[in-house]
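B., you asked whether I could sanity-check this one before it goes into the benchmark set. Here's the sequence:
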Amino acid sequence: MRRLDLDVPFQDRHLAKRLGARWDVYRKQWFVPESTDPAALLGWCCASASVNVRSHGYYLLETQHPCDNCGRSSRVHGIVLPTGHEVRMLGDYPLGDEWERSDEPSLIAFVTNLAPSVSARIRQDTWCYRPRQSFKHPEPYHLNHCEFCGGQFDDYQLFATPGSGFDVLSEIQAAEIQVTAVGSGFAGAAEHFSYGVAFLDAMRRR
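And here's what the prediction gave me:
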């Protein structure tokens, strides 16, 4: 497994070390040893081609949505990152990228990559949210699949259509969504961010 490097601020160095991070004196770089579970350290994950968002925790969402293929109501899932998560902003030159902290929670979609520990946590709840090629999108990304027929759900419909799926318009709609708070770190790559998740507090906590 490729070494996971970390971008640890000076003020967080003692916490990162307690969580298992180690300092490479030759490369001047914090990293996760192979023997250490990286889940608690993903909030400091370095930017790379496969990581453009990171957080020290996240929420897993679950609701019901009708399948266009078979017509049955299937469980579907989504991810919300809490206030304080960071998104990589592309710079004008190599090594010029910067992490920008968000002051609002974000519902993410078109997720092209997830850290292995995040994928493993999601699989505890479902196998129906997994990478798949979509005819509407050139790159494989994590799609919800019907738990009955295997048909694909459209991310636009679930995450970017007001009043549908997770893009709710009222507390009544929000109350149909279950929320599980996950205290371990998150790292991955997403192409769509809905900043300021409406009625997050009205969703049902597990």
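One thing to flag: Residues 116-123 form the longest helix (8 residues). Otherwise nothing jumped out at me.
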